[in-house]
Amino acid sequence: MTKKYARPRTGVSVLALALGGALAVPATAQDTAQDSKDFGFEEIVVTATKRASSIQDVPFSINAQTEADIRRSGAKSLEDLSRNVAGLMIQNLGPGQSQVSIRGVSAGQVVRDQPGVKEQVGVYLDESVISLSLFTPDLDLYDLNRVETLRGPQGTLFGSGSVGGTIRYITNQPNVEEFEGNVEGDLNTVSGGGTGGHIKAMANLPISDGTSAVRVVAYHTEYAGFIDAHRPSGNITENVNSGSRTGGRVAFTFKPSDTLTITPRVIYQEIDMDGFNRQEVYNVYANPYMDEPTTFEGREQFLKLREGFKDETLIADLTGEISFDGFDVTSITSYTDRDILVSRDASALTGSVSIDLGYPAAAINLPSNLRDTTAVEQFTQEVRLSSNGDGALQWIIGGFYANTDRYYQQYLPTPGYDAYTDAVLGAGTAEATRAGVAPVDSPFYSELPYTLEQIAIFGELTYDVTDRLELTAGGRYYDYKEERSVTQVGLFGNGVVDQVDETASNGFTPRFLASYRASDNVTINAQVSKGFRLGGVNDPLNTALCNADDLEIFGGFQDYDDETLWNYEAGVKVQGSKFSLNAAAFYTDISNLQVTLDAGSCSSRISFNVPKAHTQGVELEFKARPFEGLDLSFAGSLLESEFDSTVNDSIGAVLGGVREGNRLASVPKVNFGATATYSFPFDVAGDDAEAYLSATFQHRGSLYTQPSDQEAGAGDFVSGLPYRGATGTEVTSLDLELDSYQTMNLSFGINWESLEFMAYVNNVFDENANLSFDRERGGRARLGFRTNTPRTFGMLIRKHF
Q1: Which of 531, 566, 396, 392 has the alpha carbon at shortest distance from 471?
Q2: Angle at CA of residue 122, ends 117 and 124, nearest 5°
Q3: pLDDT digits over 447-500, tens only?
Q4: CB 304 within 8 A of CB 280
Q5: Domain 4-800 adopts which CATH fold?
Q6: CA pair distance 797, 801, nearest whole angstrom
Q7: Are 63 and 149 in contact (CB under 8 A)?
């Protein structure tokens, strides 16, 4: 019996499925020539089980977007890639702040000032864990070998952050055999917006023949802005959400012998965005009810101050692999250092509180900048042993350690504010509320340092009962300890200084899998697995901002328990010479789902547990090549994600929309897409080439940003703020069920042996979709929606050498 990764497969594919989002280009001419021999698809080898195997042999639901797939789809971010993967959903909360969910397992909107909330989907760069709750790293996809999406809880091999699933960025490793390189440039323009583009390059250099090499990747991208901002002067500033991403990585491989490989690597990336993709419908400073009314058009907002997002990421890791007779030893050491700044125009927030406090107009109009900073240092170490023989029994066992220090700070510089505070509320009030900690003219200041330490031991056994039946059993023991200190002072705070809270948990997550090869072309899989997410402690409410009702409702929420779930699934993988199909049905039983809620006027967010919830559905990925030159693909999911419990607040009302039968947030019931690409020979000045035409269509179903958005009357907002002619009793009515939307992308390209050219149009019909809902201070200060990029025209040139 041979190893799984050595089994020959004809026509195996994970589906290069475009659910929308960008362009589609065919594989290189060399790949196409190879495929055209039998109209089949290239085999994809993945490491989702921490050993190499064909994707069709992995005994659970997995998608792998290969380097060719990424080029075909034109994907430039994880959000773009999600449109190609059934069951994967990215909730857009602004640049670098998106949330990931798989198969409908979703806690709702988690925002910047909830640093204690843990992620539900683990994210890895090769073997290094890089997950960070809200701030999922927005890595560039250039020179990736593939991106794997492992559906369902992956707690056995990947730990706590993988309760819904795991995403793995797999980079191309240094090639010790030959020199290779490529460079590409892109130029695009956005309808009604600015101009963007990128330049990227890769070079692989063998240092000594067959024993060492270095691979260098560098990239710079300019993002075109498309949001315009009304300013206090009455002028409009265009394209306020432009930005850039710059970075690269250097990896070395040393192979002093056939049994030893050592790969040190350094990755660095900077993201610098000038603003956010928020289109507003109401702002306390600009609304239809004022003496000088303002009505926002699409893709417009109001700003007193420019906003921004910065993310500086450094990752250094070292992977060592050594083979012995019968087993391999792998060691992964990783260090991550991230500095994140979210800078928001909080003038509407501060101004709304000033109105409540009876401050004069000059104070209400002060510019106010809310600055959220996050500094993360994380060290991880994993060591594992795995069998490398050809026997019926295969095994893997390992240990994992992580230490994470996360320092979160939030403050609200508002020059001149203390003087108005003392004038209205009494001399010395501002200094007293600072508690000797907050800087002057910052009515809110908080510090939350966290330390999280975890250890885990994991293992899996796989046994070939027969040539057709394979059984796997595994488990992971985990032990977590988290400590954080809270300081929250200022006029808007509650006076807490150095309050220490601790969270600890340990347990065991098992997994059982069965795979039956019904024929050479059909495999049936089944899985039962458990997932886990660590609980935590809520940050103190901004009690000074709460009205009496909200203080009564939300004041009792302190800590929340661990979230667990059991996943049950069955799937089938079918492959043929001209098609491939992967399908699965699943049911997830969730206990103590951690749901996040906006705490109304308190301008705070809280997390709490829902005793029972579930998700269930089916997912399908299909690809066909009915004849040479024509590629068709489809991917889609049908989901039901609902609460099975009702949670009531302290006054007996349903809390935050958590009502039995209500939908979980940020999850569409229906999501699908299809792509058709036709390739044909193209003669340019006597040079043989290949041209192609491609069209991609995506449909995303309706969804809610937070569970409370589906309750009766949730879309009716009353500010209660009399200001500049507005009485404060006016009602702004919005439909908080974010409508379904469709996008279409078209591309045309030509491939020569070492040169590619492509012209594309994304979002052909200029769909202005609402991706998530944004509310400031429970909607009293500001209301808006985050939106997608308008119609985009572009050209790309890629050179291989």
Answers
A1: 392
A2: 130
A3: 999 999 999 999 999 999 999 999 999 999 999 999 999 999 999 988 899 999
A4: no
A5: Maltoporin; Chain A (2.40.170)
A6: 13
A7: yes
Q: Which two tokens stand for residue 626?
A: 């009915």
Helix (H, G, I), strand (E, B) or coil at 579: strand
User: For residue 151, which of 54, 64, 57, 43 has the smallest C-alpha distance?
Assistant: 64
Q: What is the mean pLDDT of residues 244-270?
A: 95
Token code pair at residue 682: 């193209």
Q: Which residues, including other chains, have CB under 8 Å from residue 599's CB and lie 6 or more apart?
A: 541, 546, 550, 553, 554, 605, 606, 778
pLDDT greater than 90 at residue 89? no
Write the CA distances from 671 to 307, 457, 700, 719, 726, integer angstroms: 32, 37, 5, 35, 41
Secondary structure class of 680 (helix, strand, coil): strand
Three-state SS string over 409-471 comes to: EEECCCCCHHHHHHHHHCCCHHHHHHCCCCCCCCCCEEEEEEEEEEEEEEEEEEEECCCCEEE
pTM higher than 0.85: yes
14 burial (CB, 10 Å; 0-12 / 13-18 / 19+) is buried
Phi-psi map region of 582: left, alpha, beta (phi>0 left; psi -120 to 50 alpha): beta
Alpha helices in 4-105 (DSSP H): 29-35, 67-73, 78-82
Considering only 155-164, 219-228, 750-759, 770-779, which range has the smallest mean pLDDT? 155-164
Beta-strand relationship, 144-151 and 165-171: antiparallel
Q: Which helix (H) or strand (E) holds 551?
A: helix 548-554
Nearest-angstrom CA–CA distance, 682 and 462? 50
DSSP, res 777: G
How is the chain split into domains, by residue range? 4-800
For residue 582 the two structure tokens come to 């992967």
- Closest residue by Cα to residue 122 from 92, 163, 65: 163
Q: Which amino acid is at 306?
A: R
What confidence score (pLDDT) does residue 381 get?
Answer: 95
Q: What pLDDT digit, counting tens, does each position of 359-410 carry?
A: 999 999 999 999 999 999 999 999 999 999 889 999 999 999 999 999 999 9
Pairing of strands 741-751, 755-762: antiparallel
Q: Give the three-state DSSP class for 152.
A: coil
Q: How far is CA 192 from CA 23, 441, 452, 617, in A?
A: 20, 38, 46, 39
Mean pLDDT of the chain: 88
* CA-based nearest residue to 114, from 599, 468, 466, 518: 599
If one compares 604 and 757, the residue with the highest pLDDT of the two is 757
Q: What Cα–Cα distance (Å) separates residue 81 from each residue in 16, 76, 78, 120?
A: 10, 8, 5, 18
Q: Is the pLDDT of residue 681 over 80?
A: yes
CA distances from 683 to 398, 627, 691 (A): 55, 21, 9
Residue 141 has pLDDT above 80, yes or no: yes
Report d(CA 372, CA 352) in Å as an integer.
20
Cβ count near 641 (within 10 Å)? 25
Q: What is the pLDDT of residues 554-571, one digit of tens each?
A: 776 777 889 999 999 999
Question: In whole angstroms, what is the distance from residue 126 CA to residue 82 CA?
Answer: 18
Identify the CA nearest to 454 among candidates 402, 496, 513. 402
Report CA 281 to chain centroid distance, whole Å: 26
Per-residue model confidence (pLDDT) at position 455: 95
3-state secondary structure at position 35: helix
Residues of the chain by 3-state class (helix, strand, coil), percent to 5: 10, 55, 35
List all residues 6 or more positions away from 308 whose beta carbon is below 8 Å from its beta carbon. 272, 273, 274, 275, 341, 342, 343
What does each C-alpha distance from 761 to 40, 309, 635 come to in angstroms? 29, 27, 21
Determine what percent of the chain is predicted with pLDDT higher than 70.
Answer: 92
